[in-house]
Automatic annotation (TrEMBL):
SMART domains: eIF2B_5, eIF5C. Catalyzes the hydrolysis of GTP bound to the 40S ribosomal initiation complex (40S.mRNA.Met-tRNA[F].eIF-2.GTP) with the subsequent joining of a 60S ribosomal subunit resulting in the release of eIF-2 and the guanine nucleotide. The subsequent joining of a 60S ribosomal subunit results in the formation of a functional 80S initiation complex (80S.mRNA.Met-tRNA[F]). GO terms for molecular function: GTP binding; translation initiation factor activity. It comes from Cardamine amara subsp. amara. The keyword DNA-binding does not apply. Residues 179-189 have a biased composition (Basic residues). Residues 270-432 form the W2 domain. Gene3D superfamilies: 1.25.40.180, 2.20.25.350, 3.30.30.170. PROSITE patterns: W2. InterPro entries: ARM-type_fold (IPR016024), IF2/IF5 (IPR045196), Transl_init_fac_IF2/IF5_dom (IPR002735), Transl_init_fac_IF2/IF5_N (IPR016189), Transl_init_fac_IF2/IF5_Zn-bd (IPR016190), W2_domain (IPR003307). This is Eukaryotic translation initiation factor 5-2.
Length: 435
């Protein structure tokens, strides 16, 4: 069966991995009963991850003709004689409206119906939520015939509930165990006090057991922390504190005296004047001035390498110089200035790709950058499509972020859909190679 790329914009991409069968149609009947049968509509709909009834209904709505899809036989019929090219053009419009992500153009989307009865598309690659135009006729049909939920979603919810219940039961059990320990300790102490009052013989084993229980409750690994309260020790501590304070006061007074000293005179009587220190430019300002010069982008890597600051700080400064103040539309700005980022992160060996990913994370993680944070997955998708960042570095950066100091950053939550898409794409390609 002949295949073609999904989406007209990807028609000439030889390496595009999302494909669907080419449409095959057949005209049936004569006169008023003439109909067009879309023979492989089920296979096309399966490749688009949409019900075949949606595409059939869409053709009917756009052509102003009656349409019918038979669930049992898989037959898609549209009244009237319609050529294949016309129906293929309508299918491309359907893909744009109801399949491709409005943010990154990826066809891996899922139809979601909100509580307000709105039809949205959720992208598995970048996490973007696309709002479908509710004025379109097909939306009413989708609301009446919602797509079936993905398999495993109910099982996942049940597993989460069971996990929460297990955690609650564990907490209750821990509380009961603590209460039992306290009660046994009280009973042991009351028994020892009674035995002492009645002058009864106490077995050494019983005393040792009680002491062991007390030691276990303390849980200090046998270390006893004590403070020497003798007079000599107290005097020693006071002397140490006083000496430290005195030394600090002497240093402060010496510094003040140094500041108050008049400038030294030279032998000829001229007063030496101190030259004022020139304030050093910030790294971001220095890079901004270089970019304003309009130097060729090919020379950017050489300029960056000439800077003495650490590579990560240089990449952070470059990113801030390029996108300072950018919020909404962050992904579009990154796409416009991708050539600068490509020049800065040219090779795998120098770690520049990881530095670039760190800069993206720190830029989006800043307070006040909520709009940019929403588009972080779109940014990664755009850079990945342009081969500026590679899959292995993205996955490594994401794993380090989840276990690092900033693991609570909201960046990782927004990046997660793109990472999951990368991992699923990798597993699919491996299975195709095995086949």
């Amino acid at each position: 069966m002949a295949l073609q790329n999904i989406g007209a914009s990807n028609r000439n991409d030889a390496f595009y991995r999302y494909k669907m069968p080419k449409m095959v149609t057949k005209t049936e009947g004569k006169g008023n009963g003439i109909k067009t049968n879309i023979i492989n509509n089920v296979e096309i709909a399966k490749a688009l991850a949409r019900p075949a009834s949606y595409t059939t209904k869409y053709f009917g709505c756009e052509l102003g003709a009656q349409s019918k899809f038979d669930e049992k036989t898989g037959t898609s019929l549209v009244n009237g004689a319609h050529n294949t090219s016309k129906l293929a053009g309508l299918l491309e419009n359907f893909i744009k409206k109801y399949v491709q992500c409005y943010g990154c153009g990826n066809p891996e989307t899922e139809i979601i119906i909100t509580k307000a009865q709105m039809v949205n598309l959720k992208c598995a690659a970048c996490g973007f939520i696309s709002e479908v135009d509710m004025r379109d006729k097909l939306t009413n049909f989708i609301l009446k015939n919602p797509p079936e939920p993905k398999k495993g979603s109910k099982d996942k919810k049940a597993m989460r509930r069971a996990e929460k219940e297990r955690l609650k039961e564990g907490e209750v059990a821990d509380e009961e165990q603590k209460k039992l320990k306290k009660e046994t300790k009280k009973k042991a102490s009351s028994k020892t006090s009674k035995n002492h009052s009645s002058d009864e013989d106490i077995s050494p084993k019983h005393v040792e057991d009680a002491q062991e229980e007390d030691d276990d409750e303390d849980d200090d690994d046998g270390v006893q922390w004590q403070t020497d309260t003798s007079r000599e020790a107290a005097e020693k501590r006071m002397k140490e504190q006083l000496s430290a304070v005195t030394a600090e006061m002497v240093m402060l007074s010496a510094m003040e005296a140094e500041e108050k000293k008049p400038p030294k005179s030279k032998a000829n009587g001229d007063v030496k004047t101190e030259t004022p220190q020139v304030e050093k430019k910030s790294l971001v300002q220095e890079i901004k001035e270089y970019l304003k010069k309009g130097s060729p982008i090919s020379e950017l890597k050489t300029f960056i390498s000439s800077l003495s600051d650490p590579p990560q700080e240089v990449m952070d400064a470059l990113f801030n110089a390029l996108f300072d103040g950018v919020g909404k539309g962050f992904a579009k700005e990154v796409t416009k200035k991708k050539s600068y980022l490509a020049a800065a992160a040219t090779t795998q060996e120098d770690g520049s790709q990881m530095h670039l990913l760190n800069s993206i994370g720190s830029f989006c993680g800043k307070s006040g950058n909520e709009e940019a944070l929403k588009e972080v997955a779109l940014v990664l998708k755009a850079l990945y499509d342009q081969d500026i960042i590679e899959e292995e570095f993205v996955l490594e950066w994401y794993q380090k972020g989840l276990t690092g100091v900033d693991k609570s950053s909201p960046v990782w939550k927004n990046v997660k859909p793109f990472v999951e898409w990368l991992q699923s794409a990798e597993s699919e390609s491996e299975s195709e190679e095995e086949d």
